[in-house]
Amino acid sequence: MPITRRAFLGGMTAAAGAAVAPTFWAEPIRVRPAHRAPGPVLRVQNAEPSSEAQQADEDRRAAWLLLACMDAGERARVADRLEGAIASEQARRSPLLFDLGGERLEDVLREESQRVLPAWTAARSLSATRWLVPGTSVGVLAQPGALARAGDVRGSDEGPEPRDPWKARVRFAAWPVTRAVRLSSPDRESTERLAASLRVRACEPASTVGLVVGGALGLPGVEVERWREIGRAADRAELSAALSSLSVGLAAGPPEHLLPAWLLLEPEDLWVVPRMAALARSDAFREEVRAYG
Predict the structure, then answer these.
(1) Exposure of 41 by Cβ count < 10 A (0-12 exposed, 13-18 middle, 19+ buried)?
(2) Pairing mode of beta strands 29-31, 181-184
(3) Which helix (H) or strand (E) holds 120?
(4) pLDDT value for 95
(5) CA 55 – CA 52 distance, rounded (Å)
(6) Whole-angstrom Cα distance, residue 87 to residue 85?
(7) Residue 60, Cβ neighbours under 10 Å: how many?
(8) Each residue's pLDDT tens digit in the chain (293 positions)?
(9) Which residues neighbour 132 within 8 Å (Cβ) at sequence distance 6 or greater?
(10) For residues 215 and 258, what is the distance between their CA atoms, to the nearest angstrom?
(11) Rounded distance between C-alpha atoms, residue 138 and residue 17, angstroms
């Protein structure tokens, strides 16, 4: 089940009344020219959990970001299989039709959810408005690096985690920001090739790559309607809470903006987010990105 912002640091606690920590830089490992704009910064502040409306907006953006960042062939394969299962489900329910050979929608959703879960978890966390540090009333907010203030602390790109326990917890809570890798190519065509290579690799069960953001993210109108219909059909099935939020987000249609406001990418940039299960294997994640990128 995708982890929520309230469960990012399960078992870790911090004093709820602790003073709010200073803003600090959260630029991940990067391979890009030095003249590019700085990466996002993290700021901590007192915060309440997201409202139901805010959570629905975040899930909607995450659902369509997930689709936009999938390998096109994999996305088509999943859509074909889901539509086949939906058609079989409708045939079984119709008194005028008879179907014995089709797959059950619930079975297909269960199987495909296991394949898409790492990417869905990454997309859902990346799309969050903020991340809460469990055991406290402190939230972590990401903002564009251009808004950084004098006195902010810059974190190293490839250095070890900060020695300050509080800073380390904040960085871990915001892992789609701090554990990601920014890659840059000399031109858009190279960026698309790089994105395609990493997205194919991300389909492999052994991959450490969760989500590859950047490049051409828009979906054709016909494909948008196709996935909205799939979302509506899936929403009528009995799903887990995590899958239900995915189907509802798809049925609602794509939002105006896919990327969170803090993620400012050049056309030649990619933002590669690891799988949550791979956070303890950061070296393996870096090596995989370098190998397939």
Answers:
(1) buried
(2) parallel
(3) helix 105-126
(4) 58
(5) 5
(6) 5
(7) 21
(8) 343 333 333 333 333 333 343 344 444 444 443 335 567 878 887 877 778 888 899 999 999 999 999 999 999 999 999 988 888 877 776 655 555 556 777 788 888 888 889 999 999 999 988 888 877 777 888 877 665 554 343 333 334 455 677 778 888 888 998 899 999 899 999 999 999 999 999 999 999 999 999 988 878 888 999 999 998 888 777 666 667 888 889 999 999 999 998 888 889 999 999 999 999 999 999 999 999 87
(9) 5, 6, 8, 47, 49, 138, 139, 140, 173
(10) 12
(11) 9
Judge whether 174 and 141 are in contact, CB under 8 Å.
Answer: no
Amino acid letter at 275?
Answer: R
| Cα distance between residue 44 and residue 58, in whole Å | 20
CA distance 274 to 137: 27
Tokens of 267: 């056309």
3: left (phi over 0), alpha (psi -120 to 50) or beta: beta
131-132 vs 138-143, strand pairing mode: antiparallel
Q: Which of 194, 178, 168, 198 is nearest to 276 (CA)?
A: 178
Using CA atoms, how far apart are residues 16 and 257, in angstroms rounded to an integer?
A: 34
Return the number of other C-beta atoms located less than 10 Å from residue 235's C-beta: 17
Q: Are 2 and 8 in contact (CB under 8 A)?
A: no
Extract the tokens encoding 190.
């190279």
pTM above 0.90, yes or no: no
Q: Is 289 helix (H, G, I), strand (E, B) or coil?
A: helix
CB 259 within 8 A of CB 265: yes
Q: Which of 65, 63, 112, 62 is nearest to 86 (CA)?
A: 112
